[in-house]
From TrEMBL:
<keyword id="KW-0238">DNA-binding</keyword>
<keyword id="KW-0805">Transcription regulation</keyword>
<dbReference type="InterPro" id="IPR046335">
    <property type="entry name" value="LacI/GalR-like_sensor"/>
</dbReference>
<feature type="compositionally biased region" description="Low complexity">
    <location>
        <begin position="359"/>
        <end position="384"/>
    </location>
</feature>
<dbReference type="Pfam" id="PF13377">
    <property type="entry name" value="Peripla_BP_3"/>
</dbReference>
<dbReference type="InterPro" id="IPR010982">
    <property type="entry name" value="Lambda_DNA-bd_dom_sf"/>
</dbReference>
<feature type="region of interest" description="Disordered">
    <location>
        <begin position="330"/>
        <end position="384"/>
    </location>
</feature>
<protein>
    <submittedName>
        <fullName>LacI family DNA-binding transcriptional regulator</fullName>
    </submittedName>
</protein>
<dbReference type="InterPro" id="IPR028082">
    <property type="entry name" value="Peripla_BP_I"/>
</dbReference>
<dbReference type="GO" id="GO:0003677">
    <property type="term" value="F:DNA binding"/>
</dbReference>
<feature type="domain" description="HTH lacI-type">
    <location>
        <begin position="12"/>
        <end position="66"/>
    </location>
</feature>
<keyword id="KW-0804">Transcription</keyword>
<dbReference type="InterPro" id="IPR000843">
    <property type="entry name" value="HTH_LacI"/>
</dbReference>
<feature type="compositionally biased region" description="Basic and acidic residues">
    <location>
        <begin position="345"/>
        <end position="357"/>
    </location>
</feature>
<dbReference type="Pfam" id="PF00356">
    <property type="entry name" value="LacI"/>
</dbReference>
Length: 384
């Protein structure tokens, strides 16, 4: 290997990898960029040579020569909630598969200045596009300018004039949960909402309210939490002391865990006395006691769609792709049942500690054959 001045070894370059693998430097570049039109054997030989030589790409030099960073930025909110981490994982996996790196800028709050600062940091790094993964409600002139300067996509329902959207239908999320509880025979459904400044919380609250109104049911006053289990626990202590409460739709699984604990401490059994439905289907939901009925949010799919949508905007900035919507799915477990003092709801059966509601799609009301796969936006039942 060639020597540098002072006797030190120079790091291996792309030509060294090409020579070791018996291919051209262009082929090495295509492999490392994740290009699909490379034979698997060639890809394996190149990657083996990269590993053997300890080759690392010089991204700064690559950006200078190509004028492209092959990096996408993500603005996210500082939080420990599972849903944020799950979406980020989907974005990173999809970006890596497309040959892109991911740079993250964290905002400490939903204040527009904090979001603007995070966007500016990413633009200064030369990212090719940005995923805005914050539930932004209030925009600003500066925010509009920043999102016009760089292709930007949002995944939490927020939108500026210059952004594209990949979102879960949160109104459908609420309808699935509320309709499920009404179909079990509950007279009405109480609601523990997320923070008012979050768009997804507002959409779920609206979907819950309109479902009750459409069914001619009373709409109880909603409670509000902050997505944490502690806020769910505090709300549960309130709900558990209201005798007429038999069903609760909770806007997030972590809050639902707190609700279930509070109800248990008050001697209100789940689901015998009060049924509880959450949102997200995080990994712990099936291990709740009892396993939690919840509306699954397709976090990985959201991340994948966001990257694919954004890269289309990067490749053809003049085009305007249609907003993409991802449907949620109701997962029925053991935390919901018919209200106390009533017979088991028709069409329900107990199976291995879980409940299934065969025969009807909540989203459309269309018949579904028992045991057949059910599309997104429909009731499904599973242990995992």
């Amino acid at each position: 290997m060639a020597k540098q001045g002072g006797g030190g070894k120079r790091p291996p370059g792309m030509t060294d990898v090409a020579r070791a693998a018996g291919v051209s430097a262009q082929t090495v570049s295509r492999v490392l960029s994740g290009h699909p039109n490379v034979r698997e054997q060639t890809r394996a030989e190149v990657l083996a040579a990269v590993s053997r030589l300890g080759y690392r790409r010089n991204n700064a030099a690559r950006m200078l020569s190509s004028g492209r960073s092959r990096t996408i930025g993500v603005v996210t909110l500082r939080t420990t909630f599972y849903s944020r981490a799950a979406v980020m994982s989907g974005i990173e996996d999809a970006a890596r598969s497309a040959g892109y790196a991911v740079s993250t800028a964290t905002a400490d709050s939903l204040d527009t200045f904090a979001i603007e600062s995070a966007l500016s940091r990413l633009i200064d790094q030369g990212v090719e596009g940005i995923v805005l993964a914050v539930p932004l409600i209030n925009g600003s002139t500066r925010l509009e300018e920043l999102t016009r300067a760089t292709p930007t996509l949002t995944i939490d329902g927020s939108r500026t004039d210059a952004t594209e959207v990949v979102a879960v239908d949160q109104s459908l999320t609420a309808r699935l949960a509320t309709r499920h509880l009404l179909d079990l025979g509950h007279e009405t459904v109480w609601h523990l909402a997320g923070p008012a400044e979050w768009l997804e919380a507002a959409s779920r609250r609206d979907g819950w309210r309109t479902t009750l109104e459409s069914a001619g049911r009373a709409v109880p006053p909603p409670l509000e939490g902050d997505w944490s289990a502690a806020s769910g626990y505090r709300a549960g202590l309130v709900l558990g002391r209201i005798p007429e409460v038999t069903a609760v739709f909770v806007a997030g699984d972590e809050m639902a865990f707190g609700v279930v604990r509070a109800l248990r401490e008050l001697g209100r059994r789940v689901p015998e006395d009060i049924s509880v439905v959450g949102v997200d289907d995080i990994e712990l939901a099936e291990y709740c006691a009892p396993p939690l009925t919840t509306v699954a949010q397709p976090f990985a799919q959201m991340g994948e769609l966001a990257v694919a949508h954004l890269l289309r905007c990067v490749a053809a900035p003049e085009t305007v792709p249609e907003p993409a919507s991802v449907e949620p799915r109701l997962v029925v477990r053991a935390s919901t049942a018919a209200p106390p003092g009533t017979r088991e709801a028709p069409g329900r059966r107990e199976t291995s500690g879980r409940r299934e509601t065969p025969g009807t799609s909540v989203a459309s009301g269309a018949p579904v054959a028992s045991g057949a796969p059910v599309a997104s936006g429909a009731v499904t039942s599973r242990d995992a």
